[in-house]
Amino acid sequence: MLWTTLQGLIAHRFRLVATALAVTLGVAFTAGTLIFTDTITRTFDNLMGDIYADTDVVVRGSSQFEGPMNLGAQRPRVDDALLATVRSVDGVEVAEGAVTGYARIVGADGEPLGDPANGAPTFGFTWTTDERLNPLVIAEGRPPAADGEVVIDVGSAEIGRLAVGDTTTVLVQTGPEQVRVVGTARFGTADSVGGSTMAVFAAETAQRVLAVPGEWDEISVVAEGGVGQQELAGRIAAALPADSGAEAVTGEVVTKENQDFTAETMGVFTLFMQFFAVVALLVGAFMIFNTFSITVAQRTRENGLLRALGASRRQVLAMVLVEALVVGVLASLLGLAAGLGIAHGLKALLDGLGFGIPAGGLVFAPRTVVVALVAGTLVTLVAALSPARKAAKVAPVAAMQAVSVGSTGYGSRQRVLVGAVVLGAGVTALLLGLFADVGQPLALVGLGTLGVFLGTSVLGRTVSLPLSRAIGAPLPRLRGLPGELARENAMRNPKRTAAAASALMIGVGVVGIITIFVASMKATVDQGIERAFTGDLVVDAGASIDGGVDPGLAARLAALPEVGAATGLRVGPAVVDGEALLIGAVDPATAFELLDLQPREGSPSALGPNSIAVFDETAREQGLSIGSTVPVEFAATGTQELTVALVYGEELEANGPAGTYFLSTAAYEANFSDRFDWQVYVKAAPGATLEQTTTAVEGVLADYPGVEAQDKATFAASITAQLDPMLALVYALLGLSIFIALLGIGNTLALSIVERTRELGLLRAVGMTRSQLRSTIRWESVVIAVQGTLLGLALGVLVGWALVRALADEGIDVFRVPVGTLAVVVLLGALAGMAAAVLPSRRAARLDVLKAVSSQ
Amino acid sequence: MTTSTLHRTAQAASRTAARTVDARKTYGLGTTEVRALDGVTVDFPVGTFTAIMGPSGSGKSTLLQCTAGLDGLTSGSAFIGDHDLSTLNDRDLTVLRRDRVGFVFQAFNLIPTLTAEANIILPLRLAGRRPDADWMRQVVQTLGIVDRLHHHPAELSGGQQQRVAVARALVSRPAIIFADEPTGNLDSTAGAEVLHFLRRAVDDLDQTIVMVTHDPTAASYADRILFLADGQVVDEMQQPTADRVLDRMKRFGE
Question: What is the model's pLDDT at position B11?
Fold first, then answer.
C-alpha cells in the first residue's frame, strides 16, 4: 500500500511541488522568525553579558517606574555624594558613576546622524575610565578628558565622515554643543550597535549635557579580589543612607534584567512575525485541501478499483493520509531550509532600515526544527483529512462506472450550522472584546477575528455560488460565450472555488484591516490638528520622546518680530491614576494662543507645578472636577498628587500635545529630569505672511541641524508617515501570502483543466479558438480572485471597524474606509486573477483537441 | 481566372462537401511505425450519408478526424468544400470547424454547465452570430427536444443528449457533419431514433453526413458504406442493408 502511494506521488511530481509550496512558505515563515529572533536574542544576551561582565555591583535608584509603550523600567537618578559613600565601603576596588541620555551627532555635511523618531536611538554616554566597567574600546585617538571633547562610535564616524581631530556639533538637551572628536570607539568588536549612534563624554560633561549636574543614573562597582558580588552588594546596601532612595544589586542581576527585557521586546516582534506564519499556513491549508480534493475526485475510479480488489476503507484512507504525510514532511523540510534564507533576509532588511545587528552566526535551535516540522506536517494532515475520508467512501463499483465530474453543492446543513456557530462565536468574541469590560480585550478581539475568518471559510462554499453568480454577472455581456462559460465554471464547484478564494481572502482581509486602521488613524490626526491647532508652523526635532530641542529655542522664536507666539511641547512617560501614558506639558502663558483646547472649567492660568489638566470626557468617566486630586507617578519623583486645575474639551490626538491629560511646563520640570521641548509650535505675527514667518524661523533653525519647520499639512502627514516603514514591511509580508494564494488559484485551475480535458476538447472541436479558451479560463480565475478579494475586504471592513472601536480609548475615534484604495485593491485582485490564470490557460490552449475528444 | 472557371470551381465544390486525396497518416518511426491511413482518396458528395466501417485499428476514426480538420495528415490532402486543410493554421481551422463543420461524438457531446439550448447554439455564439430562429425551431421540432431546451445535460437521457448534439451539428447549417459512433453509448431504441434523425437531415434538409460506426444496423441507415482495413479503402457498398453489412464484416475476420 505504501509503495503504491509513493509511486503515485513520484508520478505526479509537479502536483506535489505545487501543493507543497504553500506549506513550505508557511513553515519557512515560522522557522525564519524563530531563527531570527533566537539570533537577535542571543546577540543581545551576549552584548548585555559583556557590558556587565566585570561589574560586580550596581547602585541605582530603588524605585522602579514602568511607563507606556514598553520602554522598559525607568529609575530615578542617584546623588553624586553616594559615589564617595560607595568608594569607602570595604571591598570596593573601583566605583564610577555613569549617565545615559539623548545626544545626536551632526555629520560633516551638517546633517544629524540617525533617525531616532523612526529608527534606532541616538545615545550619549559617560566615558568610564576603568576598562572593566567600560564596554567601549578606543579604536583611534584617545578617551574624552575635558569639556568639549567627544568620542564617537566607529560606525557614526564613517557615516558622518568625521575623523579624529574634527570639530562638530552634538545636539543635546542643553542645545547644540560644539565638540571636538578626540577618538573613535568600538562596542567590543562591533562598529555600532543596532544602528544606534554613540557620543561619549567625560564624566562631568556627560552629567551636564545628558542629565543633571550632580546626579548619576547608576554607579558601577568592581570588587576587590576575593569579595563576592552578593557579599559586596550587601555591604554597600548597608552603607547607603536610608533616605538616598538607592539600592545595590549584583552585576548578575542587572545582566539578567537586561536579558529579560530583550526577550520581552523580542516577544512582541516574534508574535508579530508568527502572525504572518499563521496566515501563510492557513492559506497553505486551503491549498492542500483543494489539491487533495481534486486529485481524490480524479482518482475515484482508481480508488474504486483498489476497493474492488480488496482494499479496505481504512487502507484507502491511509493511502491518502500517507501521501499527505509525505507532502507535509517534505514541504516542512524545504520550509526549514527556506527559513534560514528568510532569517538572513530579515537581518538584511533590518540593516537596511538602520537597525544593524552585530555580526554573529544564525542560531538554529532544535526547538525551531521541531516546531517547523510539526506545524507543517500537522497542517497538511488536517487539511487532507476530509478529502481522504471522501476517498475512503468511494464504492468498489465506481471502478466500473464512468467518472462523472459533477459539481458539488452548497455543503451540508451541519456545515452551514458549524460555520454559522463559529462565525457567531467570532463576532461575539469581537464585540465582547470591544464593548464589554473584560480582562483581555485585545486577545478577545484577536480570537474573534480568527473565528470570523474561520467561520467565513466554513461558510465559503455556501456563499460562493451566489457570489460567483453576482461577480460574473457582467461577463456574458462583456465577453460573450467565453465569459458565460467562465462564470458557469466558477459556479459549478462552489467548494473548490470557495477554498481557492478563501486562501486569498485571508491575506486581503488583513490588508483591509490594516488599510482601514491606518486611514482611520490619519483621519483622526488630521481632524484633531484641524480642530485644535490654530498655529501656522510646527518645529520638529525629528527626535523620539526621549530627545528634542532645548527650551531656549521656543524663546528665541517667540522673540522674532514675524512670530506672534511660540510655545514648546514636552512629552514624558507617566502613570496617571494607574494608566501608563505619555503626558504632554505646555506653557499655559503662551500655549493657548496656538492650541484651541476648548477650556470648559477652570483656567489655563491656574495650571501650576502641582496641577494637571484633564480632558472633559475622561474627567466625567473618572469623576474628576476642578480641585480633585489625581495620583501621577513619575520616573524621577515617584507618585505625586496633582490637583485638577483645568478641564478641556478638545483632545489633540495621536502624539499631539494634549491627550487625556496634560501638565504645565512648571509641573513637568518639577517631575522630569529631561529638559527637552519635543516640538515647538509657532504662530505668525499679525501682518506677517506665512512665508515671511517661515523664512524668519528657518533663519534661527540654521543653528539647529536636523530641526525642521513644517506647515500644518506637512506636520499632519509626518505624524502618520512614521508608520510607513512598518506598513511597508507588513504589506510586503502580506503580499507574500497573497502571492501564495494566487499560486493556489493557479493550481486549482490547472487541476480543473485536467479534469475538464474532454469538455475543453469538445469546445475546441466545435469551434472555440485558442484565445477564446484562454479567455474562458482567465475570467474564471478573475471571478475566483475577485470573490476572495471581496470576501477579504468585507471581513477587513468588519474587523477594521472593530479594531478602531477597540482603540477608541487610545485616541483613534474616526472610522474611515478608504473607498478609493479598497477599489484599487479589488482591481488588483482582478488583475492578479488574470496573472494566476496565465500558465493554466496556456496549458489548456495547448490541449490536443483530438486526444481530448477521443479519450473514451 | 475567368468567370467560367469560377463557375466550374463553385460547381465542383457544391458537388463535393469534403474529400481526401491520397491521404496518409503515420504514427511513430522505424519499426514502431503505424500507418493509420495509407493512401485514402474519397469523396463525400453533397446531400449524401456515408458510413465508414472497418475493424479496430483500420483507420476509420483517423480518416474522420483528418477530414474534419481535427488532426493533420502526414501527406496527401483533405478538403472541406474547396479549403485545403493543410494550408490552414490552427485559428483558421478552428473557424472552419465552427462555421462549416458539425460534430456528433460518441459521448461527452455537451458542455455540462450549459442548457440544451445553449449547447445547440454554442458554435454560433462562439462565432458571435445569432441563430436563425425559424431554422432553430424547425431543427428542435424535428429532433423532438422542444420541451428539453432549458434542461442541463445531466437532466437528459443519453438519447436526448445525442439528439441535442445532432441539433447543435445542424443548427449552424454546416457543409458537412461528422459523427463518430454517435449511437455507441445508446440502447437500440434511442440509437434508432438518433439514426432516424440523421437520415432525415440528409433527406429533408439536404445535409451531408459522414459517420464512423461498427454497428451494421447503424451503417444500414447510410447511402453507402466505405470499408477500411489497414488504412486503406478496401470496399464500398451502395444502399446497404444490415444483413449485407454483417456478411461483409464477417469477411474481415477471415
Answer: 46
- For residue A159, give its domain range: 100-210
* Secondary structure (DSSP) of A182-243: EEEEEETTBSSBTTBEEEEE-HHHHHHHHS-TTEESEEEEEEPTT--HHHHHHHHHHHS-GG
Residues A516 and A564 in one domain: no
Contact B71 A850 (CB under 8 A): yes
- Are B61 and A758 inside 8 Å of each other by CB? no
Domain-ending residue, one of A182, A210, A238 = A210
Residues of B in contact with A769 (CB under 8 A): 91, 94-95, 126
**A555 and A700 share a domain?**
yes
- Asked whether residue B11 is assigned to any structural domain, the reply reads no
CB distance B91–A758 less than 8 Å? Answer: no
> A80, A217 in Cβ contact below 8 A?
no
Considering CB atoms only, which of B103, B112, B113 is closest to A765?
B103
In sequence order, which residues have a C-beta less than 8 Å from that of residue B82 and are 6 or more positions away? B9, B12, B13
Best of B62, B85, B125 to disrupt the A interface by mutation (most A CBs within 10 Å)?
B125
Q: Measured between alpha carbons, how far is A328 from A592 in angstroms, rounded to an integer?
A: 65
CA distance to partner chain A, nearest, from residue B84 (Å): 18
Concatenating the DSSP letter of every residue in A676-718 gives -BSEEEEEEPTT--HHHHHHHHHHHHTTSTT-EEEEHHHHHHH
Quote the cell numbers at residue B171. Answer: 443548427
Q: Do A767 and B91 touch (CB under 8 A)?
A: no
Partner-chain contact B122 A766, CB within 8 Å: yes
- The pLDDT of residue A16: 65
**Segment-wise mean pLDDT, segments of 10 residues, chain A, 856 residues:** 63 66 79 81 75 85 67 75 89 90 87 74 86 87 91 89 91 85 85 80 88 87 87 89 86 85 72 73 80 79 77 84 88 89 77 59 82 88 86 74 50 76 82 67 72 78 85 86 88 84 85 86 80 82 70 86 87 81 84 82 85 86 87 84 87 57 88 82 87 88 82 80 76 78 84 82 88 92 92 88 75 79 88 89 82 58
Three cell numbers at A159?
Answer: 557615516
Distance CA A807, CA A457 (A): 27
* Distance (Å, whole) CA B173 – CA A446: 64
Q: Which of A407, A489, A764 sits opposite B94 (nearest CB)?
A: A764
- The grid cell for A211 is 542629565
Can you tell me the distance from the alpha carbon of B79 to that of B92, in angstroms, rounded to the nearest whole number?
A: 13
Q: H or E segment at A178?
A: strand A175-187
Measure in Å the smallest separation between the Cα of B113 and chain A Cα atoms.
6
A762 and B106: CB-CB below 8 Å?
Answer: no
Closest C-alpha among A773, A283, A281 to residue A480: A773
Distance of CA A705 to the CA centre of its chain: 30
ipTM score for this prediction: 0.83
Interface touch B112/A489, C-beta < 8 Å: no
CA distance A384 to chain B (A): 28
Closest CA to A789 of A828, A817, A752: A828
Domain range for B111 is 16-252
Domain boundary among A185, A210, A235: A210
Query: How many domains in chain A?
Result: 3
- Tell me which residue in A405, A481, A491 faces B126 most closely, judged by beta carbons: A481
Is the CB of B108 less than 8 angstroms away from the CB of A769? no
CA distance A785 to A791: 10
Q: Does the residue A851 lie in any domain?
A: yes
Q: Are the C-beta atoms of A102 and A570 separated by less than 8 Å? A: no
B48-80 pLDDT, tens digit each: 999 999 888 888 888 998 998 888 899 999 999
CA angle A288, A292, A298 (to 5 degrees): 150
